[in-house]
Amino acid sequence: MKYYSTRNCDKQYSFAEVVLQGLAPDGGLLVPASLPSLTPSALNGQSYQAVAEQLFTPFMAPDFSVTEVAALVAQSYRNFTVADVVQSKELKDCTVLELFHGPTLAFKDIALQFLGRVLNELLQQHDEHCVVLGATSGDTGGAAIAALDHMARCQVFMLYPKGRVSLVQEAQMNRRVGDNIFPLELEGSFDDAQHLVKATFSDPDFRRAVKLTAVNSINWCRVMAQMTYYAHAVKGRERPSQGAVSFAVPTGNFGDVLAGYYVQRMGFPIDKFIVACNENDLIARFSASGVYRPNPSLATLSPAMDIQVASNFERLLFELCGRDSDYINTKMEQLRLNGEFSVEPEILAKFHQSFEVYAISNDETAAIMRETAADGYLVDPHTAVGIAARRRSALPDVIALATAHPLKFSELVTQVTGQALPLTPALESLVEQPKRCFTLVNQQSKLQEFILSRCQ
Ligand SMILES: *Cc1c(COP(=O)(O)O)cnc(C)c1O
Hints:
Elements: E1 3-5, E2 8-13, H1 15-21, E3 30-32, H2 48-60, H3 66-77, E4 87-90, E5 95-98, H4 108-126, E6 130-135, H5 139-148, E7 154-161, H6 167-174, E8 181-186, H7 190-201, H8 204-210, E9 212-213, H9 220-234, E10 245-250, H10 255-265, E11 270-277, H11 282-289, E12 291-292, H12 313-320, H13 325-338, E13 341-342, H14 345-354, E14 355-359, H15 362-374, H16 381-392, E15 398-402, H17 410-417, H18 425-431, E16 438-440, H19 444-454
Parallel strand pairs: 5-15, 6-7, 6-9, 7-8, 8-16, 10-11, 10-15, 11-14
Antiparallel strand pairs: 1-2, 1-3, 4-5, 12-13
The structure holds pyridoxal-5'-phosphate.
The site of pyridoxal-5'-phosphate has 16 residues, from helix 10.
Protein backbone atom coordinates (compact mmCIF):
# COMPACT_ATOMS: atom_id res chain seq x y z
CA MET A 1 0.00 0.00 0.00
CA LYS A 2 1.16 3.47 -0.84
CA TYR A 3 0.06 6.50 1.13
CA TYR A 4 -0.06 10.18 0.34
CA SER A 5 -0.94 13.43 2.07
CA THR A 6 -4.43 14.95 1.85
CA ARG A 7 -2.59 18.10 0.68
CA ASN A 8 -0.36 16.53 -1.98
CA CYS A 9 -1.19 13.34 -3.87
CA ASP A 10 2.10 13.30 -5.82
CA LYS A 11 4.52 12.32 -3.08
CA GLN A 12 4.18 8.75 -1.82
CA TYR A 13 4.94 7.18 1.55
CA SER A 14 5.21 3.61 2.84
CA PHE A 15 3.25 2.32 5.83
CA ALA A 16 6.44 2.44 7.94
CA GLU A 17 6.97 6.12 7.06
CA VAL A 18 3.34 6.88 7.82
CA VAL A 19 3.57 5.34 11.30
CA LEU A 20 6.85 7.05 12.18
CA GLN A 21 5.85 10.48 10.84
CA GLY A 22 2.28 10.76 12.09
CA LEU A 23 1.58 13.98 10.20
CA ALA A 24 2.76 14.65 6.63
CA PRO A 25 5.56 17.25 6.32
CA ASP A 26 3.15 19.57 4.43
CA GLY A 27 0.78 19.59 7.43
CA GLY A 28 -1.72 17.26 5.74
CA LEU A 29 -2.96 13.91 6.99
CA LEU A 30 -1.64 10.69 5.51
CA VAL A 31 -4.18 8.49 3.76
CA PRO A 32 -4.00 5.18 1.86
CA ALA A 33 -3.89 5.58 -1.92
CA SER A 34 -6.80 3.13 -2.24
CA LEU A 35 -9.07 1.07 -0.05
CA PRO A 36 -8.54 -2.69 -0.38
CA SER A 37 -11.58 -4.80 -1.13
CA LEU A 38 -12.58 -7.44 1.34
CA THR A 39 -15.68 -9.62 1.14
CA PRO A 40 -17.56 -9.22 4.41
CA SER A 41 -19.13 -12.67 4.13
CA ALA A 42 -15.67 -14.25 3.89
CA LEU A 43 -15.08 -13.08 7.46
CA ASN A 44 -18.22 -14.75 8.76
CA GLY A 45 -17.71 -16.63 12.00
CA GLN A 46 -14.14 -15.43 12.41
CA SER A 47 -12.61 -14.14 15.63
CA TYR A 48 -11.86 -10.48 16.26
CA GLN A 49 -8.16 -11.18 15.82
CA ALA A 50 -8.68 -12.97 12.50
CA VAL A 51 -10.73 -10.04 11.18
CA ALA A 52 -7.98 -7.64 12.29
CA GLU A 53 -5.28 -9.63 10.48
CA GLN A 54 -7.17 -9.64 7.20
CA LEU A 55 -8.06 -5.97 7.42
CA PHE A 56 -4.55 -4.79 8.34
CA THR A 57 -2.47 -6.92 5.99
CA PRO A 58 -3.12 -4.97 2.75
CA PHE A 59 -2.60 -1.65 4.56
CA MET A 60 0.74 -2.77 6.08
CA ALA A 61 2.23 -4.50 3.04
CA PRO A 62 4.99 -4.76 2.02
CA ASP A 63 6.60 -3.51 5.26
CA PHE A 64 4.95 -6.33 7.22
CA SER A 65 4.12 -9.83 6.01
CA VAL A 66 0.86 -11.53 6.87
CA THR A 67 2.68 -13.66 9.49
CA GLU A 68 4.17 -10.57 11.10
CA VAL A 69 0.80 -8.85 11.18
CA ALA A 70 -0.76 -11.93 12.79
CA ALA A 71 1.93 -12.00 15.50
CA LEU A 72 1.48 -8.28 16.27
CA VAL A 73 -2.29 -8.69 16.46
CA ALA A 74 -2.00 -11.70 18.79
CA GLN A 75 0.37 -9.86 21.15
CA SER A 76 -1.70 -6.67 21.13
CA TYR A 77 -4.97 -8.25 22.23
CA ARG A 78 -3.62 -10.89 24.62
CA ASN A 79 -4.18 -8.76 27.71
CA PHE A 80 -7.78 -7.83 27.03
CA THR A 81 -10.17 -9.30 29.58
CA VAL A 82 -12.71 -10.67 27.09
CA ALA A 83 -11.70 -13.29 24.55
CA ASP A 84 -13.12 -11.50 21.53
CA VAL A 85 -11.59 -8.13 22.57
CA VAL A 86 -15.01 -6.43 22.46
CA GLN A 87 -18.37 -7.52 23.82
CA SER A 88 -21.99 -6.52 23.18
CA LYS A 89 -24.91 -5.96 25.55
CA GLU A 90 -28.57 -5.49 24.68
CA LEU A 91 -30.23 -2.40 26.15
CA LYS A 92 -33.84 -1.29 25.67
CA ASP A 93 -33.37 0.62 22.43
CA CYS A 94 -29.94 -0.31 21.17
CA THR A 95 -27.10 -2.75 21.30
CA VAL A 96 -24.07 -1.46 23.19
CA LEU A 97 -20.68 -2.56 21.92
CA GLU A 98 -18.22 -2.43 24.83
CA LEU A 99 -14.78 -1.42 23.60
CA PHE A 100 -13.28 -0.89 27.06
CA HIS A 101 -11.90 -4.27 28.07
CA GLY A 102 -8.25 -3.35 27.51
CA PRO A 103 -5.58 -2.46 30.09
CA THR A 104 -6.68 1.15 30.69
CA LEU A 105 -10.44 0.63 30.40
CA ALA A 106 -11.02 2.87 27.37
CA PHE A 107 -11.38 2.09 23.67
CA LYS A 108 -8.09 3.86 22.94
CA ASP A 109 -6.29 0.68 24.08
CA ILE A 110 -7.56 -1.12 20.98
CA ALA A 111 -5.55 1.13 18.67
CA LEU A 112 -2.64 2.04 20.94
CA GLN A 113 -1.75 -1.50 22.03
CA PHE A 114 -1.30 -2.27 18.34
CA LEU A 115 0.44 0.99 17.38
CA GLY A 116 2.90 0.59 20.28
CA ARG A 117 3.99 -2.81 19.03
CA VAL A 118 4.23 -1.68 15.40
CA LEU A 119 6.34 1.29 16.46
CA ASN A 120 8.65 -0.86 18.55
CA GLU A 121 9.08 -3.31 15.68
CA LEU A 122 9.97 -0.51 13.23
CA LEU A 123 12.46 1.05 15.65
CA GLN A 124 14.12 -2.33 16.11
CA GLN A 125 14.30 -2.94 12.37
CA HIS A 126 15.91 0.46 11.78
CA ASP A 127 17.94 0.37 15.01
CA GLU A 128 16.51 3.72 16.05
CA HIS A 129 15.12 5.45 19.13
CA CYS A 130 12.34 8.00 19.35
CA VAL A 131 10.68 10.43 21.71
CA VAL A 132 6.90 10.21 21.93
CA LEU A 133 5.37 13.50 23.01
CA GLY A 134 1.68 14.06 23.65
CA ALA A 135 -0.96 16.02 25.53
CA THR A 136 -3.89 14.23 27.08
CA SER A 137 -7.17 15.06 28.75
CA GLY A 138 -6.84 11.64 30.37
CA ASP A 139 -7.53 8.62 28.17
CA THR A 140 -4.92 8.87 25.42
CA GLY A 141 -2.14 9.35 27.97
CA GLY A 142 -2.90 6.21 29.95
CA ALA A 143 -3.42 4.11 26.83
CA ALA A 144 -0.17 5.36 25.22
CA ILE A 145 1.79 4.76 28.41
CA ALA A 146 0.35 1.26 28.83
CA ALA A 147 1.31 0.52 25.21
CA LEU A 148 4.86 1.88 25.35
CA ASP A 149 5.79 1.08 28.96
CA HIS A 150 9.27 -0.50 29.22
CA MET A 151 9.92 -0.20 25.50
CA ALA A 152 13.55 0.81 25.68
CA ARG A 153 13.62 2.43 22.25
CA CYS A 154 10.87 4.92 23.13
CA GLN A 155 10.81 7.64 25.71
CA VAL A 156 7.35 8.92 26.45
CA PHE A 157 6.58 12.46 27.63
CA MET A 158 2.90 12.89 28.37
CA LEU A 159 1.44 16.21 29.51
CA TYR A 160 -1.81 16.31 31.45
CA PRO A 161 -3.57 19.21 33.17
CA LYS A 162 -3.10 19.20 36.93
CA GLY A 163 -6.28 18.42 38.87
CA ARG A 164 -8.41 17.85 35.77
CA VAL A 165 -8.00 14.11 35.20
CA SER A 166 -9.90 11.41 37.09
CA LEU A 167 -8.35 9.36 39.89
CA VAL A 168 -8.07 6.23 37.74
CA GLN A 169 -6.75 8.14 34.72
CA GLU A 170 -4.01 9.70 36.81
CA ALA A 171 -3.05 6.41 38.45
CA GLN A 172 -2.77 4.74 35.03
CA MET A 173 -0.31 7.40 33.91
CA ASN A 174 1.96 7.78 36.92
CA ARG A 175 1.92 4.62 39.03
CA ARG A 176 3.96 1.49 38.35
CA VAL A 177 5.40 2.80 35.08
CA GLY A 178 8.89 2.21 33.68
CA ASP A 179 11.93 4.49 33.51
CA ASN A 180 11.11 5.37 29.90
CA ILE A 181 7.84 7.05 30.95
CA PHE A 182 7.69 10.71 31.99
CA PRO A 183 4.22 11.78 33.13
CA LEU A 184 4.22 15.59 33.21
CA GLU A 185 1.66 17.31 35.38
CA LEU A 186 1.15 20.72 33.82
CA GLU A 187 0.24 23.86 35.73
CA GLY A 188 -2.44 24.71 33.17
CA SER A 189 -5.43 23.46 31.20
CA PHE A 190 -5.65 20.72 28.56
CA ASP A 191 -5.63 23.42 25.89
CA ASP A 192 -2.35 24.76 27.36
CA ALA A 193 -0.91 21.24 27.24
CA GLN A 194 -1.95 20.81 23.63
CA HIS A 195 -0.56 24.20 22.73
CA LEU A 196 2.86 23.38 24.24
CA VAL A 197 2.99 20.08 22.40
CA LYS A 198 2.00 21.62 19.07
CA ALA A 199 4.57 24.40 19.45
CA THR A 200 7.28 21.85 20.23
CA PHE A 201 6.36 19.76 17.19
CA SER A 202 6.59 22.81 14.99
CA ASP A 203 10.17 23.52 16.06
CA PRO A 204 11.98 21.63 13.25
CA ASP A 205 15.44 21.66 14.87
CA PHE A 206 14.17 20.29 18.14
CA ARG A 207 11.98 17.81 16.33
CA ARG A 208 14.93 16.40 14.43
CA ALA A 209 17.34 16.51 17.39
CA VAL A 210 15.22 14.21 19.55
CA LYS A 211 13.28 12.30 16.83
CA LEU A 212 9.85 13.43 17.97
CA THR A 213 6.95 11.10 17.20
CA ALA A 214 3.23 11.47 17.84
CA VAL A 215 0.82 8.70 18.70
CA ASN A 216 -2.30 10.89 18.68
CA SER A 217 -5.34 10.01 16.64
CA ILE A 218 -4.01 11.59 13.45
CA ASN A 219 -1.63 8.60 13.23
CA TRP A 220 -3.08 6.43 10.45
CA CYS A 221 -2.24 3.23 12.32
CA ARG A 222 -4.75 4.18 15.02
CA VAL A 223 -7.57 4.81 12.55
CA MET A 224 -6.75 1.53 10.82
CA ALA A 225 -6.76 -0.47 14.06
CA GLN A 226 -10.17 0.96 14.97
CA MET A 227 -11.69 -0.29 11.74
CA THR A 228 -11.72 -3.82 13.15
CA TYR A 229 -14.65 -3.57 15.54
CA TYR A 230 -16.94 -2.10 12.90
CA ALA A 231 -16.08 -4.86 10.43
CA HIS A 232 -16.30 -7.51 13.14
CA ALA A 233 -19.73 -6.27 14.27
CA VAL A 234 -21.38 -6.29 10.82
CA LYS A 235 -19.58 -9.08 8.98
CA GLY A 236 -22.45 -11.57 9.37
CA ARG A 237 -25.15 -9.13 8.30
CA GLU A 238 -24.52 -8.94 4.59
CA ARG A 239 -27.88 -10.40 3.57
CA PRO A 240 -30.23 -7.55 2.56
CA SER A 241 -33.11 -9.16 4.49
CA GLN A 242 -31.25 -8.40 7.68
CA GLY A 243 -30.96 -4.71 6.81
CA ALA A 244 -27.94 -2.57 7.42
CA VAL A 245 -27.07 -1.48 10.91
CA SER A 246 -26.02 2.03 12.03
CA PHE A 247 -23.48 3.01 14.68
CA ALA A 248 -23.77 5.74 17.31
CA VAL A 249 -20.27 7.05 18.01
CA PRO A 250 -19.26 9.51 20.77
CA THR A 251 -16.98 11.90 18.93
CA GLY A 252 -14.13 14.27 19.71
CA ASN A 253 -11.33 14.23 17.17
CA PHE A 254 -13.44 12.36 14.59
CA GLY A 255 -10.96 9.45 14.60
CA ASP A 256 -13.24 6.69 15.78
CA VAL A 257 -16.18 7.49 13.51
CA LEU A 258 -13.85 8.00 10.55
CA ALA A 259 -12.58 4.43 10.97
CA GLY A 260 -16.19 3.27 10.63
CA TYR A 261 -16.67 5.37 7.52
CA TYR A 262 -13.71 3.66 5.81
CA VAL A 263 -15.25 0.29 6.64
CA GLN A 264 -18.50 1.42 5.02
CA ARG A 265 -16.53 2.59 1.97
CA MET A 266 -14.92 -0.84 1.78
CA GLY A 267 -18.35 -2.33 1.16
CA PHE A 268 -19.42 -3.49 4.60
CA PRO A 269 -23.19 -3.24 5.20
CA ILE A 270 -23.42 -0.12 7.38
CA ASP A 271 -26.33 2.28 6.96
CA LYS A 272 -25.25 5.45 8.80
CA PHE A 273 -23.14 6.86 11.58
CA ILE A 274 -24.84 8.80 14.34
CA VAL A 275 -22.14 11.25 15.32
CA ALA A 276 -22.60 12.14 18.98
CA CYS A 277 -20.97 15.39 20.12
CA ASN A 278 -21.20 16.90 23.58
CA GLU A 279 -21.67 20.67 23.99
CA ASN A 280 -18.57 21.10 21.83
CA ASP A 281 -20.78 20.99 18.79
CA LEU A 282 -18.44 21.79 15.88
CA ILE A 283 -19.58 18.82 13.76
CA ALA A 284 -23.26 19.37 14.57
CA ARG A 285 -23.00 22.99 13.39
CA PHE A 286 -21.18 21.81 10.27
CA SER A 287 -23.93 19.28 9.56
CA ALA A 288 -26.62 21.95 9.91
CA SER A 289 -24.90 24.72 7.94
CA GLY A 290 -21.98 23.38 5.91
CA VAL A 291 -19.73 25.79 7.79
CA TYR A 292 -16.75 24.40 9.70
CA ARG A 293 -15.90 26.90 12.41
CA PRO A 294 -14.03 25.78 15.57
CA ASN A 295 -15.01 27.61 18.77
CA PRO A 296 -13.12 27.66 22.08
CA SER A 297 -13.71 24.35 23.86
CA LEU A 298 -16.10 24.01 26.81
CA ALA A 299 -15.57 21.74 29.80
CA THR A 300 -18.34 19.10 29.88
CA LEU A 301 -19.14 15.84 31.65
CA SER A 302 -17.31 13.96 28.85
CA PRO A 303 -13.80 15.49 28.90
CA ALA A 304 -12.25 13.19 26.25
CA MET A 305 -14.58 14.90 23.77
CA ASP A 306 -13.88 18.50 24.85
CA ILE A 307 -11.97 19.27 21.69
CA GLN A 308 -12.00 22.46 19.61
CA VAL A 309 -10.85 21.04 16.28
CA ALA A 310 -11.71 17.66 14.82
CA SER A 311 -8.28 16.86 13.32
CA ASN A 312 -9.41 13.78 11.44
CA PHE A 313 -12.16 15.71 9.67
CA GLU A 314 -9.63 16.60 6.97
CA ARG A 315 -9.45 12.93 5.99
CA LEU A 316 -13.23 12.78 5.63
CA LEU A 317 -13.35 15.96 3.59
CA PHE A 318 -10.69 14.50 1.30
CA GLU A 319 -12.98 11.54 0.57
CA LEU A 320 -16.10 13.69 0.20
CA CYS A 321 -14.49 15.96 -2.41
CA GLY A 322 -13.27 13.02 -4.49
CA ARG A 323 -9.67 12.99 -3.19
CA ASP A 324 -8.76 16.42 -4.50
CA SER A 325 -5.75 17.84 -2.67
CA ASP A 326 -6.20 21.29 -4.29
CA TYR A 327 -9.66 21.45 -2.74
CA ILE A 328 -8.22 20.56 0.70
CA ASN A 329 -5.44 23.13 0.39
CA THR A 330 -7.97 25.86 -0.46
CA LYS A 331 -10.22 24.99 2.49
CA MET A 332 -7.37 24.69 4.97
CA GLU A 333 -5.98 28.03 3.85
CA GLN A 334 -9.42 29.61 4.40
CA LEU A 335 -9.55 28.03 7.85
CA ARG A 336 -6.15 29.47 8.68
CA LEU A 337 -6.99 32.95 7.42
CA ASN A 338 -10.65 33.27 8.45
CA GLY A 339 -11.07 30.74 11.24
CA GLU A 340 -13.67 28.90 9.14
CA PHE A 341 -14.50 27.43 5.76
CA SER A 342 -17.72 26.30 4.15
CA VAL A 343 -18.46 23.46 1.77
CA GLU A 344 -20.68 23.34 -1.29
CA PRO A 345 -24.21 21.84 -1.08
CA GLU A 346 -23.17 18.70 -2.99
CA ILE A 347 -20.37 17.99 -0.50
CA LEU A 348 -22.75 18.51 2.41
CA ALA A 349 -25.27 16.18 0.74
CA LYS A 350 -22.60 13.50 0.51
CA PHE A 351 -21.84 14.03 4.19
CA HIS A 352 -25.52 13.47 5.03
CA GLN A 353 -25.56 10.20 3.08
CA SER A 354 -23.36 8.68 5.78
CA PHE A 355 -23.75 10.86 8.89
CA GLU A 356 -26.40 12.22 11.23
CA VAL A 357 -25.06 14.52 13.92
CA TYR A 358 -26.46 15.44 17.34
CA ALA A 359 -25.04 17.72 20.04
CA ILE A 360 -25.91 16.43 23.49
CA SER A 361 -26.12 18.68 26.56
CA ASN A 362 -24.72 17.85 29.99
CA ASP A 363 -28.28 17.46 31.29
CA GLU A 364 -29.16 14.90 28.62
CA THR A 365 -25.91 13.04 29.31
CA ALA A 366 -26.67 12.85 33.03
CA ALA A 367 -30.28 11.79 32.36
CA ILE A 368 -29.10 8.85 30.23
CA MET A 369 -26.58 7.84 32.88
CA ARG A 370 -29.35 7.79 35.52
CA GLU A 371 -31.77 5.97 33.26
CA THR A 372 -29.44 3.15 32.27
CA ALA A 373 -28.31 2.86 35.90
CA ALA A 374 -31.94 2.40 36.93
CA ASP A 375 -32.11 -0.42 34.35
CA GLY A 376 -29.08 -2.04 35.93
CA TYR A 377 -26.36 -0.95 33.51
CA LEU A 378 -23.87 1.79 34.39
CA VAL A 379 -22.37 3.81 31.55
CA ASP A 380 -19.57 6.36 31.56
CA PRO A 381 -20.43 9.90 30.40
CA HIS A 382 -18.93 9.46 26.89
CA THR A 383 -20.97 6.34 26.21
CA ALA A 384 -24.01 8.21 27.55
CA VAL A 385 -23.55 10.93 24.92
CA GLY A 386 -23.65 8.23 22.23
CA ILE A 387 -26.79 6.61 23.64
CA ALA A 388 -28.47 10.03 23.93
CA ALA A 389 -27.77 10.70 20.25
CA ARG A 390 -29.14 7.29 19.36
CA ARG A 391 -32.40 8.30 21.14
CA ARG A 392 -32.68 11.41 18.98
CA SER A 393 -32.27 9.42 15.76
CA ALA A 394 -35.09 7.59 14.01
CA LEU A 395 -32.76 4.93 12.57
CA PRO A 396 -34.09 1.46 13.38
CA ASP A 397 -31.14 -0.76 14.13
CA VAL A 398 -28.27 0.86 16.03
CA ILE A 399 -25.10 -0.26 17.77
CA ALA A 400 -23.89 2.35 20.28
CA LEU A 401 -20.17 2.25 20.98
CA ALA A 402 -19.24 2.18 24.68
CA THR A 403 -15.89 3.95 24.69
CA ALA A 404 -14.91 3.85 28.38
CA HIS A 405 -15.62 1.69 31.41
CA PRO A 406 -17.75 3.48 34.04
CA LEU A 407 -15.02 2.77 36.62
CA LYS A 408 -12.72 5.08 34.75
CA PHE A 409 -15.00 7.96 35.68
CA SER A 410 -16.15 6.50 38.99
CA GLU A 411 -16.33 9.83 40.86
CA LEU A 412 -18.61 11.32 38.24
CA VAL A 413 -20.72 8.19 37.74
CA THR A 414 -21.37 8.05 41.48
CA GLN A 415 -22.14 11.74 41.67
CA VAL A 416 -24.64 11.59 38.80
CA THR A 417 -26.34 8.25 39.47
CA GLY A 418 -25.99 8.07 43.25
CA GLN A 419 -24.67 4.53 42.88
CA ALA A 420 -21.42 3.64 44.64
CA LEU A 421 -18.85 2.25 42.26
CA PRO A 422 -16.00 0.78 44.28
CA LEU A 423 -12.64 0.36 42.57
CA THR A 424 -11.58 -3.19 41.76
CA PRO A 425 -8.83 -4.64 44.00
CA ALA A 426 -6.38 -4.23 41.10
CA LEU A 427 -7.20 -0.52 40.71
CA GLU A 428 -7.21 -0.04 44.51
CA SER A 429 -3.68 -1.40 44.69
CA LEU A 430 -2.57 0.67 41.68
CA VAL A 431 -3.80 3.89 43.29
CA GLU A 432 -1.80 3.09 46.44
CA GLN A 433 1.52 2.79 44.59
CA PRO A 434 4.07 5.63 44.83
CA LYS A 435 3.74 8.26 42.10
CA ARG A 436 6.28 8.74 39.32
CA CYS A 437 5.39 12.25 38.27
CA PHE A 438 7.11 15.46 37.21
CA THR A 439 5.64 18.93 37.40
CA LEU A 440 5.92 21.40 34.57
CA VAL A 441 5.18 25.10 34.33
CA ASN A 442 3.36 26.31 31.24
CA GLN A 443 6.39 27.37 29.21
CA GLN A 444 7.68 25.83 26.00
CA SER A 445 11.37 26.29 26.85
CA LYS A 446 10.87 24.38 30.14
CA LEU A 447 9.27 21.47 28.31
CA GLN A 448 12.09 21.31 25.76
CA GLU A 449 14.75 21.54 28.49
CA PHE A 450 13.07 18.74 30.39
CA ILE A 451 12.96 16.48 27.34
CA LEU A 452 16.59 17.20 26.43
CA SER A 453 17.77 16.53 29.98
CA ARG A 454 16.10 13.10 30.00
CA CYS A 455 16.99 12.07 26.48
CA GLN A 456 19.50 9.34 25.90
C1 LIG B 1 -11.01 9.71 22.87
C2 LIG B 1 -12.36 9.36 23.35
C3 LIG B 1 -13.52 9.64 22.59
C4 LIG B 1 -13.48 10.39 21.27
O1 LIG B 1 -12.90 9.67 20.23
P1 LIG B 1 -12.40 10.41 18.88
O2 LIG B 1 -11.68 9.38 18.11
O3 LIG B 1 -11.51 11.54 19.34
O4 LIG B 1 -13.60 10.92 18.18
C5 LIG B 1 -14.74 9.20 23.08
N1 LIG B 1 -14.84 8.56 24.26
C6 LIG B 1 -13.75 8.29 25.04
C7 LIG B 1 -13.95 7.59 26.33
C8 LIG B 1 -12.49 8.68 24.60
O5 LIG B 1 -11.41 8.41 25.37
